[in-house]
Amino acid sequence: MIDQGPVIEWLLASDVSIRWQVMRDLLDVPQSEWKAERAKVETEGWGARLLACQDEDGQWAGGSFLPRNFDRREWREVGQPWTATLFSLSQLREFGLDPSCERVKKTVELIGVNSYWDEGGQPYWQGEVEECINGRTVADGAYFGVDVSPIVDRLVGERQEDGGWNCERINGSERSSFASTINVLEGLLEYERLSGGTEESRAARKSGEEFLLQRNLFRRLSTGEPADERFLRFAHPNRWHYDVLRALDYFRDAGIETGIGPDPRLAEAIAHLRSRQLANGAWPLDWSPKGRVWFEIDDGPGKPSPWITLRAMRVLRWFEG
User: Fold this and answer.
1) What is the tally of helices (H) and strands (E) in the chain?
2) What is the pTM for the complete model shown?
3) What is the Cα gyration radius of the chain?
């Protein structure tokens, strides 16, 4: 058994966005204490640094999904850029920026007035056309207190017959994808947390969970083989990408929210998670999506990652009871 004490100390010495979640999820400190620590995300560390990159009109990099004046050659030669509004909001949600702070209220209002989707020109909080993007927009909007129910209704109606979602549906795909499904599930869960959800949205979320559980979070239903070897490699930030740790962290979050215990079909993914722990008790970053970022928050592939370690430890704590 690895002594987790040094790992906890290492996590607590990291950024405030890590520290407050360690206090809440691993140390069970009183709510008043972790909330006080969480409030610092706005003014210290990575959260403050990302907020400092915000444009005067409320956006980041001058765009909703892509930076202003983006050249497609950059995507081909360097990778997808991650600096625009969608990805910045999602990262602030991961950091745990307090949704009740005045900065958030102003940001939500400004984005609603000034930000429009690159595809179609729709106002930001009305959503885009792709399920992955809309799932994240629902997650961010619900977390930051926006009424995203019209986007939720649309997502519920776009569910595939196998229970999940696929952003290629508009191009004729009739099978769900792991990545699209986890993006939508996270959004629907945040929507439930904000509003309680609807009977239809709760049923859709359960069907999406079943899509993943039937496949043990990473296997093809048809052959039992891994659907993609990358699903077993841990990424951060995930952006739109899927891996089993992201899925496990979602099921933990959903289980705590609903009071439902771990499903036995998570066991194989849990075993894989345990197998990846390093001798020092931490977990490594396997990869990060390539492309433009505001700043790096991990030391690179192969190095111990505070984010991967935090998520792994809280998942195992929940699963083991």
Assistant:
1) 14, 0
2) 0.96
3) 19
By residue count, the chain amounts to: 321
If you write DSSP's letter for every residue of 94-119 in order, what string do you get? HHT--TTSHHHHHHHHHHHHH-B-TT
Q: What's the token pair of residue 12?
A: 């607590």
Q: Dump pLDDT digits (tens) for 156-193.
A: 999 999 999 999 888 888 899 999 999 999 999 999 99
pLDDT digits (tens, 9 = 90+) for 53-98: 999 999 999 999 999 999 999 999 999 999 999 999 999 999 999 9
Contacts of 38 (CB under 8 A, 6+ apart): 16, 20, 96, 98
Cα–Cα distance between 220 and 97 in angstroms, integer? 37
pLDDT at residue 1 tops 70? no
CA dihedral 155, 158, 162, 163 (to 10 degrees): 20
Residues 273 and 316 sit within 8 Å (Cβ to Cβ): yes
Q: Distance from CA of residue 5 to its chain's centroid?
A: 27
What are the residue boundaries of the structural domains of the chain, listed by start?
1-126
Question: Which amino acid is residue 74, in one-letter code?
Answer: E
Residue 182 contacts residue 176 (beta carbons within 8 Å): no
